[in-house]
Amino acid sequence: MTKPIHTPYFSGSEKPAYSGVYRRKRPVFDFLGNGPKKMQVRYNAFRNGQWYCEGSTPEEAAKRTEPSYLQDVPWCGLVEAQA
Known about the structure:
Distance between the termini: 15 Å
Number of domains: 1
Number of strands: 5
Number of helices: 1
Shape: globular
Structural class: mainly beta
Strand content: 35-45%
């Protein structure tokens, strides 16, 4: 499996111009809510001006319909490999 190619990361205050699935960095907290301990990379769909819940793959993220509570975390676009 090849590693996805992506654009540079944008700040969470900037939003994508197009609907689609994007790669995002979100904070990870411990089970007591302390943290963030580190940043985790996940995939989220962006539609209708908002982010939707994450998926571990772009395909999984595209199916999510619940709005994400994290609307302002860094994100980047995925770039399809050219043959």
